[in-house]
Amino acid sequence: MSSLRHQRYLSHNPHAVNVVLVHGWGMNSGVWQPLLPYLQEDFHVTVIDGFEEDITAYLAIAPNVAIWCGWSLGGLLVLDIANQYPERMQAVVTIACNPCFVQRDDWPCAMSLLDFKQFQQGLTDNQSATLKRFIALQCLGSTSQKQDARLLQQQLAVQPLPSLSTLQAGLAVLTQDYRPQFAQLTLPMLCLFGENDGLVPADVGDALLALNANVQLSIIADAAHVPFISHPEKVAQQLGQFVQERLR
CA-to-CA distance for 28 and 33, rounded, in angstroms? Predict the structure, then answer.
C-alpha cells in the first residue's frame, strides 16, 4: 500500500488546467504553500506528499492528464513518469532539477561525488542535523535566505520526519543518471532554476539545451534552490506564460 498522500486545490476558472506538484528530498508538500495562492487563478492543483520508488503510486492519485511539476528529486520522478506514461502528461516542469545530480566526467555541472558521499554519511550519523544543514544549503544565495530557511523549518516540523530508509532511498535516486530520459522527451518542457542555487547550478541549463532542444529555460534572479518560496509570484508567472505559449 502506498504511503503517498495528496490534496487538491480547485480553481474557479473554467479554463483552469491541472498541475501536479511533487516535492523534493527530505521535505513535504508544505513547501508549496507560498506558491499555491498564485496558482489558484489558472490551475487546479494536486499536491502530492511523500516519496515512493514505485511511480505508479503517483499516477494512482493524480488527474488523468496534467502538467507535472517536480522540484529537485521530484523533478527526477516526473522525468521517469513522463518517459513511461507520456499519455498522462500535458507538459513537464522541473524546478531546480539536474537530471544528473552527481558529477560525472562528462557532466561537471553538478554536486561533487565527495560532497554527496559526505552527505550520505551525515544522514546515517545524524538525521536531524543533516536535514537542518540541507535546509540551510537550499536557501544559501537567496535574497530572503533567513525567511526561506525559517519557512522550510516550520513546514518540516508540521509532519513527522521521513524515515531513514525513505531518505536513503531518495538519495539513491539522486545518484542515478536521468539524462537519457531527459533527452528522449518530446513533451513541452520548462526547466526553472534559481540564479544562485548552490545545489543545482543554473549553468546546467546550457547542457540541458544540448540534450534536448525542446526545453524552455527560465532562471529566477536572486533565488537559490527554492525559488517557489523566495519568489513564488515569479515562478507562477513563468508557469502561466509557459502554458499560454506552449499549451493553448
Answer: 11
